[in-house]
Design brief:
With 267 residues, the protein is α/β, with parallel strands linked by helices. Helix content is 50%, strand content 15%. It has ten helices and eight strands.
């Protein structure tokens, strides 16, 4: 289970304000808290910074490289921004890198080329000119097409992270079920391929979002989800993940779960 911290995303109003101010202390705090909560990667998205996207992206990359041991997910639709951010990472410390994202058509060649250059993983989104798929059949068809292209481009299965495209339950009551079935499809047909998602999307527009997020996380990881962009610092999410790993047999003698509970009791 690979946790990707979501808090360095400019779509979060409080984070956007920190990016705009270049508040080093606050950003470093977000970095540290996510790493301590178990994040293996930190997602960096500065798109909402507008004309300052590149400047803030490079600044955020510098903060992560200098103040954590986490890997980095570069999350941008701007090929020029991604190119310069990849170069910045390569100039820094040895850092696991994920490039988010390549669709079936848009940005595919650019992302694949940069992935080869940086030995990075590729987040693939099964979206084409017809838009985002919503049904299980549509998702599986587009996943197969994307996988064919990624393999033809010599991206190893183990370097591929298929985004299963989580949508909010508020507007589609079957959307979470479709995602779970999509995860199972990928796990069965492409066992070496990773799956990922923007997990918090599932609760957008709903009350008590943390409850929905943690419940969905348990179901998704049980279905075979490999990784997720989420808030690892959320108390409900941390508790759910700790218990879930024990239940799935990923925590020998439940020692990590026991340690987590003991740490809570000492607070």
């Amino acid at each position: 289970m690979i946790l990707i911290g979501e808090k360095l995303n400019s779509s979060i109003p409080s984070t956007l304000a920190l990016f705009e101010q270049k508040d080093e202390a606050a950003i470093r705090s977000l970095i540290t808290k996510q790493e301590q909560a178990g994040a293996a990667y930190l997602d960096i998205n500065t798109a909402i910074c507008g004309e300052n996207e590149l400047d803030r992206m490079l600044w955020a990359v510098e903060q992560v490289l200098g103040h954590s041991s986490c890997g980095i997910m570069l999350d941008t639709t701007d090929s020029a921004v991604m190119q310069q951010a990849v170069d910045a990472v390569l100039r820094g410390r040895d850092c696991p890198l994920l490039l988010n994202s390549a669709t079936i058509d848009d940005r595919f060649d650019t992302v694949v080329s940069l992935a080869h250059k940086a030995n990075a993983g590729v987040v693939g989104m099964p979206i084409d000119a017809d838009g985002m798929p919503h049904t299980l059949e549509e998702k599986c068809q587009k996943i197969d097409l994307l996988m064919k292209k990624l393999r033809a481009a010599n991206i190893p299965d183990t370097k591929i992270y298929l985004d299963v495209l989580v949508e909010t339950l508020a507007t589609g009551g079957e959307s979470a079920k479709v995602v779970l079935d999509t995860i199972r499809y990928v796990a069965q047909k492409y066992p070496q391929v990773n799956t990922t998602c923007g997990l918090s999307n599932v609760s957008f527009g709903l009350p008590k979002r943390a409850l929905v997020n943690s419940s969905f996380a348990a179901a998704a990881f049980a279905a075979g989800l490999s990784s997720a962009i989420l808030d690892p610092t959320s108390p409900s999410m941390r508790g759910t993940l700790a218990a879930m790993q024990a239940i799935l047999g990923q925590d020998e003698y439940c020692m990590d779960y026991i340690t987590y509970i003991r740490d809570l009791e000492e607070l």
